[in-house]
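Researcher: Next entry in the queue.
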Amino acid sequence: MEKDARQSVFCVVGEMLQDGMKVIAVARKQVGRRKKTTPDDEKDMTLVGYLFFFDAPKQTEGESVTALKRLKVIPKILTGDQTAIALSVCRRVGISAEHILTGTQLDEMTDCELKKVVEETHVFAELTPGQKVRLVSALKENGHTVGFLGDGVNDIPALNEANVGISVDTAVDAAKDAADVVLLQKDLNVLEQGVLEGRKTFTNMLKYIKITASSNFGNIFSIICASAFLPFLPMTSIQILLLNLLYDTLCIVLPWDNVDEEEILSPRDWSGKTLKQFMLSFGPISSLFDIVTFLFLYYFLCPALCGGATYLQLTDPSLKLQYAALFQTGWFLESMWTQVLILHFLRTAKIPFLQGICTGHLYYFGRDSCFYSPYFYQRGITVWTDKITALVFCLFAACGIFLYAAKFRNQIFL
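Model: Structure for this entry, 414 residues:
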């Protein structure tokens, strides 16, 4: 082939590659009647034409890439295709291609150099399966959680190396076996939905752990303090069981709770240290208000409703029973209300019920628990008298002060 003809071939193929097409050249040669061919037969052939294959990205893939970036997920292309094809795909889907690293350049880098380059580069072309594994490993060593999407045999090593291997239903069987997740739809929008659902689940799980751990810590400490100083049980066994039943049932609904958009726009890490700090800071606040409630009930409210004397000063057994029942009722109501309301205040960094809207199940169950808990006296769980209205209003005021303090602590840790 003459020089001009060769240059013409390169121009045609180059244009096709820039448009994102894969090119196969077709050539022929008369070899006569032979049973087998050798590599030497592939010389001095006549070019017949080209086969062009174009796998155009879907129109929604550009929107999907933008959505993933909004969620702080950084898309990177790792491909064995030529650089021109990778550039064409990047232009179509909106991935930055200012810096491109080829497999040949990657082999010349040390691991330390690669760790720096992999943060700034988003397109890697002309890669072998081993080079893909090396790039995934570099990202993991930099502290990233890496998900790799691939559907070919060459992607299997990288699928195994990634934190999450993702394949599609139309991929080769070996790739689907190596993947952790198989997408039934070849659409990046599915990845966005998966990321959102995962972050919602993780956020709700953190809510449950933080609220339950801190609340239980404060309640147990309060019971220990009250039992050490009170001449009667601070709460009956059936009240404790009912309190735990209602609160645990309310927490069961948390996995389906709504999540503020600000909490799912970026990934969150699990930190036992943060949980410990939250528990040790919020737990004592809960205990402090419980102790204040004990003092208020024991020295002010209950004496006011039982003849002006404290429990130890009373001589009438019926008044002592009424005094203890009023105290137990007061703490039961205060514990029930604060646990339900504090769940709503800690589940969101916004103003609950107005800005941070919870699911209907969480709202209605919490509302019913608060409003109907005073009427359990019919089953012997609480005692009710005409004077209990004063107890209710006083406890509501105490709960309000407690919630403001808890909300202030919540702004620090959420």
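Model: The chain has 14 helices and eight strands.
Researcher: Noted, moving on.
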